[in-house]
Amino acid sequence: MSGSDEDAGRAAPSKRADARRNKETLLDAAASVFVTSGVHAPVRDIAAEAGVGLGTIYRHFPTRADLIIAVYRHQVEACAEAGPALLASSATPHAALGQWVNLFVDFLVTKHGLAAVLHSDDAGFDTLHAYFLDRLVPVCAQLLEAAAAAGEIRSDLGAYELMRGVGNLCIGADSDPRYDARRLVELLIAGLRRTD
Predict the structure, then answer these.
(1) Mean pLDDT of all residues in the chain?
(2) Tens of pLDDT, residues 66-110
(3) Which of 39, 59, 82, 189 is the most exposed place for a label (fewest CB within 10 A)?
(4) Which of 46, 62, 78 is the last residue of a domain?
(5) What is the C-alpha separation between 136 and 83, in angstroms, rounded?
(6) Same structural domain for residues 23 and 93?
(7) What single DSSP character describes residue 155?
(8) Are 88 and 8 part of one and the same domain?
(9) What is the CATH number of the domain that holds 157?
(10) pTM above 0.90?
(11) Could you tell me the sign of the dihedral formed by the alpha carbons of 13, 19, 23, 26, in that order?
């Protein structure tokens, strides 16, 4: 292999890594704008948050629906990957569970807006919801099992049940400034602690 062939071989993976990072930056920016301004926020606001031009966004995501679905999947993956990382880096499994639930709440606040837009395509929404459950229920279960095994929390609560409860506490949080869902979720997580 000649030197130029080796350079070309190294450039392709580097270019793919850069493109992946740029796409992740766009998705993070879109999620941030969706949280503060809703899913109907102008694309120019997302471009400004990401520090890119409008053309870059439309090149990656030709329609708003494409962008919304990509944000949804990106946030599910980030939440799924955070669980094991938090278990490895937190002082206790209960602390890791609390931090993960905070990330989950952030996702849910965004998700409620996404869900309203995506419900116009029920089959597509059902597929995304199944993906959400398949990726996040096992992560939550791992965190709950670790905290229960450490004797920090009661062991009679399932992952789906906890996630559903947290989700229900988050309903309406984005439309009522008097309602502090995060505070109620913190009380829920604190209430999991063993008292004996």
Answers:
(1) 85
(2) 888 898 889 899 999 999 999 999 999 999 999 999 999 888 876
(3) 59
(4) 62
(5) 9
(6) no
(7) S
(8) no
(9) 1.10.357.10
(10) no
(11) positive
CB 165 within 8 A of CB 188: yes
- What the block records as the tokens of 125 is 């929404």
The tokens for 12 are 């392709």
Q: What is the rounded distance in angstroms from the CA atom of residue 117 to the CA atom of residue 107? A: 15
- Which tokens sit at 46? 């997302």
- Residues 131 and 191 occupy one common structural domain: yes
| CA pair distance 111, 121, nearest whole angstrom | 15
Torsion of CA 38, 44, 45, 48, to 10 degrees: 150
Domain total for the chain? Answer: 2
Which residue segment(s) compose the domain that 161 sits in?
Answer: 67-196
Nearest in space to 79 (alpha carbons), one of 146, 159, 22 = 159
Contact 136, 104 (CB under 8 A): yes
Q: Indicate whether 37 and 118 sit together in one domain.
A: no
* Residue 9's CATH number: 1.10.10
At position 7, the amino acid (one-letter code) is: D
